[in-house]
Amino acid sequence: MYSSKRLYPFRFTKEHLRKKRTVIPSSTEDEELSQLLKLYNSNKIRTTKYSVLSFLPKNLFEQLHRFANVYFIFLAALNFVPVVEAFQPEVAVVPIILVLSVTAVKDIWEDYRRFRSDHLINRLLCRVYSSKQKAYIDKCWKDVRVGDFVRLSCNEIIPADMLLLYSSDPRGVCYIETANLDGETNLKQRQVVLDLPFQGGEITLENFHSRLECENPNNDLSRFRGYMEHPNGVRVGLHNNNLLLRSCTIRNTETVVGIVIYAGHETKAMMNNSGPRYKRSQLEKRLNTDVLWCVLLLIIMCLTAAVGHGLWLKNLKDPIFETDTETSPALAGFYVFWTMIIVLQVLIPISLYVSIEIVKLGQIYFIHNDLALYNEQLDSRIQCRALNITEDLGQIQYLFSDKTGTLTENKMVFRRCSIYGVEYPHKENGKDQYHDFGFHRSTDPAVTLSSGFPSTGTLLSLHLCVQAKEVVPDPELVRKLSWLCSPVKPLSDGSSGTPCSLELTYITDFFLALAICNSVVVSSPSQPRHVVTRTPLKSLEEIKLMFQRFSFSPFSALSTPQLRGSPRSFTSRLFSRGKTGSFTFSPPPSSTTDGSETGQENNLESSTLRRKLDLPDTDDELLYEAESPDEAALVHAAQAYRCTLRGRSPESLLVDLPGIGSLAVQLLHILPFDSNRKRMSVVVRHPLSGQLVVYTKGADSVIMDLTETSKGNTEQTQKHLDSYAREGLRTLCIAKKVLEEEEYEVWLKRHLLAESSIENREELLLDSAERLETNLTLLGTTGILDRLQEEVPETIEALQRAGIKVWVLTGDKKETAINIAYACKLLRPGDELLTVTCGSKDACAALLQELKLEVQRGGDRLMEPSAAENRSESSSSSAADFILVIDGCTLDWALQEELKSDFLELSCRCKAVICCRSTPLQKSQVVRLVRDQLGAMTLAVGDGANDVSMIQVADVGIGISGQEGMQAVMSSDFAISRFKHLSKLLLVHGRWCYSRLANMILYFFYKNVMYVNLLFWYQFFCGFSGALMSNSWVLILFNLLFTSVPPIIYGVLERDVPADTLMELPELYRAAQTAKIYVPSMFWINILDAFYQSLVCFFMPYFALAGSDVGDLSFGSPINASALLIILLHQVIESHTLTWIHMLVLAVSAASYFGFVLLVSLFCVTCSPPLNPLGVETLQMSQPLFYIICTLTTATALLPSALTTAQMDKVDSERYCKRMQRWNQNHRVNRLPVSADNPGLERSIDTVVS
């Protein structure tokens, strides 16, 4: 029975609940505690926006956020006022009802899909403990509450965020798959809360009386802070490894039990479910401005009509028709103003917004189904997560790219290493023998040292075969490691080419660190996971038998008062930090045959141990699931040298060591990698020496500062690091530290306190880790090859030719970044490097000024006097000579308020910028600086969690679904699988989307202004009374229906330039940006064109019918027909693509108009009072004059547009050919000819142009 008085001596105030969450089992009978649990959300989710009752008011309210909708509702209401009505009130409401209905139907369909999904999820079943029935019962997910105990089995989905209390695994772990949450398929390991009374046995929930205090719900997937307080007052810290998140799946674990902490919409999964991203495109912002110009134009027209009507009434004398003489001219003009607002309402394109949404959906459909953007190997295609910025892809000016996993494969190959200051080049690894290797999982055997030892003193044989994940061991390193295995070779001080004991210690510790300093999960095809038993793998007697062939020098007697042949004596000398005592291998007691028998005995022992643990006999059965490619590469490298990670549990690791066999390594602590420390550490008890050892791996810039500089190998290792970086290798340093027992106890107390803290937990854990990772002993360093993705150089070259500036923002060393820049053609041999590395703000300011002058002088030297049309080419060629390289420390200074303008000015004058050693925050700051200060369109592309910030800051964010999970993809606007897809996405789809949408918007404005002006010109001949010369139904439906579909088809299918040409000639992308399709000047040119065509369309029929007795509707019939033909054929002139779909839509649009007016003319008598359209259209279409007027009017109106378009196409073609010829002349020297020696190079651009 729970007692709130015993467990909770305070009342649960609102202030307390705001700070943290208290959870107790829901079976409590205490009323106060029950009320507390009821304050938390249930597990029922509801992602729908509407209910049956709220749909109408809520949807209408949302649609009223659009100014155009409010405007048309106002006009519809205004038309119900008798003194200002222009036509039947019911006709006026048709446009707004149609638009609102279409949008509402779309919203209903989307919400219904969400409702069905919610219903299925809420009705899923899980097993929940019932305190009344003392058993687990089936409950729907929606009925689960905070404090419930939930039991799950293998392959079941977790219904809510739960704290793991029990696992059927004897080690207290369970595995989960987080693919539903973050897209990652590799298994994650979760740990049962420590120090539970039923840990290791069957859980008894009636005896669970602990209280849980944790942080309030948040969306941070990688953080969970809290503690569990037992009834005796003992507190146990809770962390992220204890939490099972909703939507994840239980794997490789038979049964788990947890208590629900967060439920429903308070779970981390639901708090991260924000739906599709919404960004406003630059085109949409420009559109809103032009709509306001149309509003201003409408007001001017209405004011003109109001003033004209007032003057007309004032000057009217003895009218022959009935007029309102009681209303003053001023008041009549006021009424006419509002009447004209109703008549000319179509000037504001109400259907444009709906059309834009339809066009963007069509564009996304074609992008999504482009086979060129499909990755067959990964079965992955492009994802369009932001639905409303497709046109921004055609306006990119700056591209910011990560390096690792974005430009490179992020599939690491162990290439070189340096241990104890000695480099091992692994020359065989440098050969191009890795064709298409996978990641995380290995099904082929790695090259390893043979397990059998020859009877003579020959070196161990190497089994070299070109397979996936292979690491070909270095012969010299193999020779040294063979001394651990050989029973006949003596050790010396290293002077005669044989390794000394200290060097051998470094080598063994180095590979042991590679094997255990990670979070790799080990499994095999036949065995889901490896179990490390809690019993020791080898007794002292077993180890003694293994080392009985070793004897030590007389100096060994000085170390410890132990038996000379004991394993403790051997390991204390071999694995003690800072000791250099030597030892020798003694020959076998009898003969070579005996030695061989000893080797066979050891092999027999190893096989026996493997059978006891049910471990695979060969290395090829091991599967490594790593959270990063670096970890997998290092574990495979250690495996190649017979230092094999066999199994993992939260408390121990199973490792094979060369010449020793399987050992259990007690795992005390893991200090995971974070971006602040840039390193990872494990605290273990050494399996041989029994000492407490900290193994650390991390970035060389951090580890080298933490090592003891007195060691002689530090300087030599630094030279090797610099050499690796120049070769473009990723470098990691490996170090260790031996702890004293007292030192560890002191650190452990502080660390446990930090783990159990809720507030400032991250800062306390960081401080705790930094206290431990000091005075390290440098063991060595690794160089890992991360190859470029295919077609990266060609993609970057194409983007630069398209006028896009490419910046690389990476956390790697400067030398590595420069090497990669050369490899991907971002940096060419003729370019000049400008390196900015400073230690102070003043030095940074001075250097930036100096480099600005240098770039300016270089530009002046290269700038030659020429015609104005050549200046842009000269300018670009001068900028191409400079590449700016800046490190993270200096970037901090450069981004400060006083220096950022100088840094930005210098960067803009360079062809490219490389920011190395940059943090995620710095990446986002650089992107924001360029976006805000230059007003440029920016794109950021990355593949990891460290790229999320810059992806979100950029105008367009692109995530690459690579080897580092799906964090970047989930934060992006578009997701691709390879960097090369950027060229097709930007140069083709981006240009098409921008060109299509821009021209469609301009066309909408043109056709609306053109048709509205016809009504406006008519006012000059009817006393500005607001009278119409056409059927009111035709007036409403003309722009809303008859002419609205062709521009939509144009916006989806138009291709001004074929895709192949755009890919071959990236300069066309820059030409489209320079042409500025949708700018204020183009808007007003289209408006003027509309005015001209409206004048022709109105006055040609007017003069043709002058003096006749035609009525208003008869006069308007040829005007409407001519306007329809002009508008439709104008689009044909503007289009570069005409397919059968275009022709069909145009024909249907024209037929729908003529069919509608004929039907109205035949059957409608009172459709448009006070006018009677009966028989008007049938009479007009039966007369030849109607067709003559329509033909001449259409031809005259379209003639200037046709001539202008033809002339512009000719001028653009000639200008482009000249520009391409100049470009080819400037760049021909940089291109290698196609020959037998260079079969992979693409053909020169000269042949394409000619």
Automatic annotation (TrEMBL):
<protein>
    <recommendedName>
        <fullName>Phospholipid-transporting ATPase</fullName>
        <ecNumber>7.6.2.1</ecNumber>
    </recommendedName>
</protein>
<keyword id="KW-0067">ATP-binding</keyword>
<dbReference type="GO" id="GO:0005524">
    <property type="term" value="F:ATP binding"/>
</dbReference>
<dbReference type="InterPro" id="IPR032631">
    <property type="entry name" value="P-type_ATPase_N"/>
</dbReference>
<feature type="binding site">
    <location>
        <position position="947"/>
    </location>
    <ligand>
        <name>ATP</name>
    </ligand>
</feature>
<feature type="transmembrane region" description="Helical">
    <location>
        <begin position="1185"/>
        <end position="1206"/>
    </location>
</feature>
<dbReference type="GO" id="GO:0005886">
    <property type="term" value="C:plasma membrane"/>
</dbReference>
<feature type="binding site">
    <location>
        <position position="403"/>
    </location>
    <ligand>
        <name>ATP</name>
    </ligand>
</feature>
<dbReference type="Pfam" id="PF13246">
    <property type="entry name" value="Cation_ATPase"/>
</dbReference>
<feature type="transmembrane region" description="Helical">
    <location>
        <begin position="1001"/>
        <end position="1021"/>
    </location>
</feature>
<keyword id="KW-0479">Metal-binding</keyword>
<comment type="similarity">
    <text>Belongs to the cation transport ATPase (P-type) (TC 3.A.3) family. Type IV subfamily.</text>
</comment>
<feature type="binding site">
    <location>
        <position position="673"/>
    </location>
    <ligand>
        <name>ATP</name>
    </ligand>
</feature>
<dbReference type="GO" id="GO:0005789">
    <property type="term" value="C:endoplasmic reticulum membrane"/>
</dbReference>
<feature type="domain" description="P-type ATPase N-terminal">
    <location>
        <begin position="38"/>
        <end position="91"/>
    </location>
</feature>
<feature type="binding site">
    <location>
        <position position="404"/>
    </location>
    <ligand>
        <name>Mg(2+)</name>
    </ligand>
</feature>
<keyword id="KW-0460">Magnesium</keyword>
<feature type="transmembrane region" description="Helical">
    <location>
        <begin position="91"/>
        <end position="109"/>
    </location>
</feature>
<dbReference type="InterPro" id="IPR018303">
    <property type="entry name" value="ATPase_P-typ_P_site"/>
</dbReference>
<feature type="binding site">
    <location>
        <position position="923"/>
    </location>
    <ligand>
        <name>ATP</name>
    </ligand>
</feature>
<feature type="region of interest" description="Disordered">
    <location>
        <begin position="579"/>
        <end position="607"/>
    </location>
</feature>
<feature type="active site" description="4-aspartylphosphate intermediate">
    <location>
        <position position="402"/>
    </location>
</feature>
<dbReference type="InterPro" id="IPR032630">
    <property type="entry name" value="P_typ_ATPase_c"/>
</dbReference>
<dbReference type="GO" id="GO:1990531">
    <property type="term" value="C:phospholipid-translocating ATPase complex"/>
</dbReference>
<feature type="binding site">
    <location>
        <position position="697"/>
    </location>
    <ligand>
        <name>ATP</name>
    </ligand>
</feature>
<dbReference type="InterPro" id="IPR023298">
    <property type="entry name" value="ATPase_P-typ_TM_dom_sf"/>
</dbReference>
<keyword id="KW-1133">Transmembrane helix</keyword>
<dbReference type="Pfam" id="PF16209">
    <property type="entry name" value="PhoLip_ATPase_N"/>
</dbReference>
<feature type="binding site">
    <location>
        <position position="810"/>
    </location>
    <ligand>
        <name>ATP</name>
    </ligand>
</feature>
<feature type="transmembrane region" description="Helical">
    <location>
        <begin position="291"/>
        <end position="312"/>
    </location>
</feature>
<feature type="binding site">
    <location>
        <position position="402"/>
    </location>
    <ligand>
        <name>Mg(2+)</name>
    </ligand>
</feature>
<feature type="binding site">
    <location>
        <position position="946"/>
    </location>
    <ligand>
        <name>ATP</name>
    </ligand>
</feature>
<keyword id="KW-0812">Transmembrane</keyword>
<feature type="domain" description="P-type ATPase C-terminal">
    <location>
        <begin position="969"/>
        <end position="1204"/>
    </location>
</feature>
<feature type="binding site">
    <location>
        <position position="812"/>
    </location>
    <ligand>
        <name>ATP</name>
    </ligand>
</feature>
<feature type="transmembrane region" description="Helical">
    <location>
        <begin position="332"/>
        <end position="354"/>
    </location>
</feature>
<feature type="transmembrane region" description="Helical">
    <location>
        <begin position="1033"/>
        <end position="1053"/>
    </location>
</feature>
<feature type="transmembrane region" description="Helical">
    <location>
        <begin position="1083"/>
        <end position="1103"/>
    </location>
</feature>
<dbReference type="GO" id="GO:0000287">
    <property type="term" value="F:magnesium ion binding"/>
</dbReference>
<dbReference type="InterPro" id="IPR023214">
    <property type="entry name" value="HAD_sf"/>
</dbReference>
<keyword id="KW-0256">Endoplasmic reticulum</keyword>
<dbReference type="InterPro" id="IPR006539">
    <property type="entry name" value="P-type_ATPase_IV"/>
</dbReference>
